[in-house]
Protein backbone atom coordinates (compact mmCIF):
# COMPACT_ATOMS: atom_id res chain seq x y z
CA UNK A 1 0.00 0.00 0.00
CA UNK A 2 2.88 2.36 0.71
CA UNK A 3 4.21 1.78 -2.81
CA UNK A 4 0.89 2.80 -4.38
CA UNK A 5 0.76 5.84 -2.13
CA UNK A 6 4.18 6.94 -3.36
CA UNK A 7 3.12 6.63 -7.01
CA UNK A 8 -0.19 8.44 -6.80
CA UNK A 9 -1.28 11.67 -5.18
CA UNK A 10 -5.06 11.95 -4.93
CA UNK A 11 -6.81 15.28 -5.35
CA UNK A 12 -9.87 15.02 -3.14
CA UNK A 13 -13.30 16.42 -3.94
CA UNK A 14 -14.48 19.31 -1.79
CA UNK A 15 -15.11 18.16 1.77
CA UNK A 16 -13.11 14.92 1.52
CA UNK A 17 -9.57 14.24 2.69
CA UNK A 18 -7.13 11.44 3.46
CA UNK A 19 -4.66 9.42 1.43
CA UNK A 20 -7.41 7.97 -0.77
CA UNK A 21 -10.02 10.69 -0.13
CA UNK A 22 -12.18 8.38 1.97
CA UNK A 23 -12.49 10.64 5.02
CA UNK A 24 -14.87 13.53 5.62
CA UNK A 25 -16.26 15.56 8.48
CA UNK A 26 -19.81 16.15 9.52
CA UNK A 27 -20.17 19.57 11.13
CA UNK A 28 -16.58 19.45 12.40
CA UNK A 29 -16.65 15.82 13.59
CA UNK A 30 -14.96 12.95 11.72
CA UNK A 31 -17.82 11.01 10.08
CA UNK A 32 -16.94 7.62 11.61
CA UNK A 33 -17.19 8.89 15.21
CA UNK A 34 -20.69 7.44 15.66
CA UNK A 35 -21.07 8.45 19.32
CA UNK A 36 -20.72 12.16 18.51
CA UNK A 37 -21.51 12.67 14.82
CA UNK A 38 -25.13 13.64 14.06
CA UNK A 39 -25.67 14.07 17.81
CA UNK A 40 -25.22 10.29 18.17
CA UNK A 41 -28.67 9.84 16.60
CA UNK A 42 -27.88 9.05 12.98
CA UNK A 43 -25.11 8.53 10.45
CA UNK A 44 -23.18 11.04 8.40
CA UNK A 45 -23.53 10.02 4.75
CA UNK A 46 -21.59 12.84 3.08
CA UNK A 47 -19.84 15.97 4.36
CA UNK A 48 -22.26 17.87 6.63
CA UNK A 49 -25.26 15.63 5.79
CA UNK A 50 -26.82 13.50 8.53
CA UNK A 51 -29.34 10.69 7.95
CA UNK A 52 -31.26 10.58 11.21
CA UNK A 53 -32.71 7.61 13.07
CA UNK A 54 -36.51 7.29 12.75
CA UNK A 55 -37.30 9.13 15.98
CA UNK A 56 -35.01 12.11 15.26
CA UNK A 57 -34.86 15.05 12.87
CA UNK A 58 -32.94 18.29 12.41
CA UNK A 59 -29.76 19.16 10.56
CA UNK A 60 -27.66 17.21 13.09
CA UNK A 61 -30.45 14.85 14.31
CA UNK A 62 -30.74 16.95 17.46
CA UNK A 63 -34.55 17.13 17.65
CA UNK A 64 -36.76 14.37 19.04
CA UNK A 65 -40.01 13.45 17.35
CA UNK A 66 -41.57 11.59 14.49
CA UNK A 67 -41.84 13.03 10.99
CA UNK A 68 -44.20 12.14 8.18
CA UNK A 69 -43.98 13.14 4.50
CA UNK A 70 -47.07 13.51 2.29
CA UNK A 71 -47.04 15.08 -1.19
CA UNK A 72 -43.43 16.34 -0.73
CA UNK A 73 -44.31 18.12 2.54
CA UNK A 74 -42.82 16.97 5.83
CA UNK A 75 -44.38 17.51 9.25
CA UNK A 76 -42.46 16.74 12.43
CA UNK A 77 -43.72 16.50 15.98
CA UNK A 78 -41.65 18.56 18.41
CA UNK A 79 -41.39 15.84 21.05
CA UNK A 80 -42.18 12.15 21.16
CA UNK A 81 -43.09 12.51 24.84
CA UNK A 82 -46.35 14.18 23.84
CA UNK A 83 -48.04 11.23 22.15
CA UNK A 84 -51.36 13.11 21.84
CA UNK A 85 -49.67 15.81 19.76
CA UNK A 86 -48.12 13.19 17.49
CA UNK A 87 -51.46 11.47 16.96
CA UNK A 88 -53.11 14.78 16.09
CA UNK A 89 -50.39 15.60 13.55
CA UNK A 90 -50.69 12.18 11.92
CA UNK A 91 -54.48 12.46 11.80
CA UNK A 92 -54.29 15.90 10.18
CA UNK A 93 -51.79 14.66 7.61
CA UNK A 94 -53.93 11.62 6.90
CA UNK A 95 -57.05 13.74 6.46
CA UNK A 96 -55.23 16.15 4.14
CA UNK A 97 -53.90 13.24 2.08
CA UNK A 98 -57.36 11.69 1.82
CA UNK A 99 -58.89 15.04 0.87
CA UNK A 100 -56.26 15.65 -1.83
CA UNK A 101 -56.61 12.11 -3.17
CA UNK A 102 -60.42 12.34 -3.25
CA UNK A 103 -60.40 15.73 -5.00
CA UNK A 104 -57.91 14.61 -7.65
CA UNK A 105 -60.20 11.82 -8.89
UniProtKB/TrEMBL annotation:
Sequence ranges assigned to domain EGF-like in this UniProt record? 10-21, 50-61
Task: Name the InterPro entries for this protein.
Answer: EGF (IPR000742)
- Protein name in the entry: Predicted protein
Annotated organism of origin: Naegleria gruberi
